[in-house]
Hints:
The chain contains 15 helices and 23 strands. The protein is of the alpha+beta class. The strands form 6 sheets. Strands 1, 2, 3, 6, 12, 13 and 14 form a 7-stranded mixed sheet that branches. Strands 17-18-16-15-21-22-23 form a 7-stranded mixed sheet, with helices on both faces. It has a 3-stranded antiparallel sheet with strand order 8-7-9. The radius of gyration is 22 Å and the shape is globular.
Amino acid sequence: MSHAPVAVFDLGKTNSKLFVLDANGDVVxxxxxxxxxxxxxxxxxxxxxxxxxxxxxxxKNVVESHGVRHVTFSGHGCTFALIAGDRLHHPxxxxxxxxxxxxxxxxxxxxxxxxxxxxxxxxxxxxxxxxMLWLADRDPRNIDDASAILGYPQFWSWxxxxxxxxxxxxxxxxxxxxxxxxxxxxxxxxxxxxxTKMPPFAxxxxxxGTHRVExxxxxxxxxKVHNGVxxxxxxxxxxxSLGFDDFTLISTGTWVIIFNQAxxxxxxxxxxxxxxxxxxxxxxxxxxxxxxxxxxxxxxxGWNHPITVEALEAVIAKGCFALPSFSPGGPFPDxxxxxxxxxxxxxxxxxxxxxxxxxxxxxSLDLIQSENDIVIDGGLVKAELYAPxxxxxxxxxxxxxxxxxxxxxxxxxxxxxQSGLSPFQNQCDLAAPAAISGxxxxxxxxxxxxxxxxxxxxxxxxxxxxxx
Length: 468
């Protein structure tokens, strides 16, 4: 197999990573940084110049040290860029900010029906079409004077190649801008006159152009730039490329995003953060999500050490529960996260938080009618008991990926696909169920508490809330 190494910038909300993968599918280099989100007057925006500077330096380094000749991008959702000619027209918004209430009332009234876009009406900028409407409300010139509207990965593909394109997995990620069943832009795009600002489509991984890298000796190398992809959809493609067919993917990181192509779209409940994503090959896919990585961080008090079975059994015996939700969105969007039962701290508080994330995942799997094999990818694989707890709760095979970077590997696989190559091997491991005393009854009690609060949310006011 002959193919130059591929550099993948895997751009998360809180961490930016560069992976270099060779023709055998092995990681030969990895570096990390953090994006900077800064205040600009009354909004928060990305410091795109700082991120571009880091990316440029790291790309030069791997071109010199590893012979990289291809670069692509995997990016977090909910984010867009407005360009005008060869420049960024408006700073890139941080999706974790809510429009003023008076503005929200106006713009939310214009959002298409769920039956058209399968995008639930979410807070903040979780639907990035909502943030576009906010910018237009602030000043119509923000959109009117832009020459193109780009998804976040496509912004970086453009930044490095000069070629602006659309990509369906990003547009189809609860943006309000895509109609999955029609495989076309939504009515919102046409009503606002935005279709002319949408550049031509290119497949994820398609070659767009080149980026010239100047080496230390003064020579230059042209690196091929490939179209980027939505990170969780990239992970979904990666596992399909390994041979998984009828399966549920749990993609974990800041978000826990669960895909089940076997679930009919008419099951989706827009009020419980259920939606249709669209694969890189234009297939609508039932999805449910909650901000599991962020919720664990908040609920655990930032705990970053191992958690033992003994700690789990201790909090189960005490009747300590964490109840939804510690971040916006998810299946319980109207509730604020809280602990009930005896006070706990340290490892025991983290144990309650881990049980919370596992039980939220378990409930989400039921809501999305998951009965097939389960594959867990991403950051929560490192929480050693997360998969074994799920394996105890589910009557399904639960696999964990030996490679927790499915989004980056999927982006590389899409580049390799352009040459007819598929170098990755299935190294997923079957998770053994954890033996945890009292877990099944704890699950019953947790669901009883959570569903009671959802049905009568006013009860939540009498409980002590956890500071977000």
